[in-house]
Amino acid sequence: MNAREAAFKILCDIEIDKNYSNMAINKIFKNNEINDKDKGLATEIVYGVIENKKYLDFIINKLSKIKVKKMSSYVKIILRMGTYQILFLDNIENYAAVNETVKLANKYDKKSRGFVNAILRNEIRQERTIKYIDIEDPIRRLAVKYSYQQWIIEDWVDKFGMEFTEELLEAGNERPNLYLRTNTLKIDRETLLKEFEKEGIKANKAMLPEGIMVEKFKGIENSRLYKEGYFTIQDISSMLVAKVMNPKENDMVLDVCSAPGGKSTHMAELMKNTGKVVSRDVFEHKIKVIKAASKRLGINNIEAEEFDATKLDKESIEKFDCVLADVPCSGFGIIKRKPEIKYKSKEELKDLPEIQAKILENASKYVKIGGTLVYSTCTVQDCENIDIVNEFLEKNSNYKLVPIEGVNVDPDEQERGYLKIYPHIHGIDGFFIAKMKRVK
After folding, report:
1. Shortest CA distance to 232 belongs to which of 295, 325, 176, 286?
2. Within a 10 A sphere around the Cβ of 135, how many other Cβ atoms?
3. Pseudo-torsion of CA 68, 74, 121, 41, nearest 10°?
4. In b/e form, how buried is each residue of 333-355, taking b as 16+ CB within 10 angstroms?
5. Which residues are designated catalytic?
6. Which secondary-structure segment (H or E) carries 182?
7. Which end of the chain has less Cβ packing within 10 Å, N or C?
8. For 78-88, what is each residue's pLDDT tens digit?
9. pTM of the model
């Protein structure tokens, strides 16, 4: 299977079957013979099409009497792929983009072959002028330019202002950096960097003492160093959660929404494999993922178990020194990693704050007096972040926000007991982390 057919299959999986991009990519690559070069191009096309879907549709609609929303899924995906290659990929000749896209149409929707050919050739003829977004309304223009649902732009402009919003949108369309977390149970960062060098992997220190940024390396999960458990793939923002928690050796720790286990395994490493980390998730198959990660990393102080965080576990009340509620969220801080998040409807997300508040309330019951409660999300929405925490504190006088120590991200906010992390300001995934102490 060549690059473009692989990209087409992946995009169909995302568009039609509503699969996440990373899962769709892994599935197609795993089940088909595709060389590394083609995997690279397929990945570029997939993420390029998803990130720019609304803009691509805007361009296609300028030239087509049949609007994109009335096209079959196959035809719209094929046209988006061809349009993306023509307008964005300078290393691909226009004739190659057209010819290869028409081949796809011929194979998967033969009757559309002439239509696809005509649209793409018109794009080439009008390439200089067609890119212009002739929309006066600034909100609609941003929604098309950056390919976001309009309600998200309206919400952000209302909260952050126009300039901040556009910078946030630009950051969401950037390619994400690949960060790794050194497994300090097995190796120190300096030694790991030397091992990467031996393997021909370009890597540098990143922000936190265990953090590493890798430059342009595909398939790092197939490397010997990964398989032997010397590191975990994890963004810096996600690493910060365990650093904020700062569990001590021999602590009893509970992670109520753990899968895939990155924060649990990080806390276990910080505890030097002592004490216990209870890692919970509502899905059985995700428990298996946590167990597999723990085994690969050589961690033996994690106990993974299936449990619904929205339910209260009476057996766990006041049993833990540290409790983490890394709750389900809209994901608006990690759009560059999962660009399909940009197309979520308001309706899809309306129940999240209620679920988040319930999980935090339950999690608070499991903390010993004097213990630590951390609430975190990978979104930039106040209604899922500080608003949830403030509402919780109003109802629970036995908790208070406490200064965050041991990290240097935003000193003023850290002193107040929480972190609001924005991709365009901090250069890492958007996150929210609040640290609270049970005082009575």
Report:
1. 295
2. 14
3. 120
4. bbbbbbbbbbebeeeebeebbee
5. 378
6. strand 178-182
7. C
8. 999 999 999 99
9. 0.93
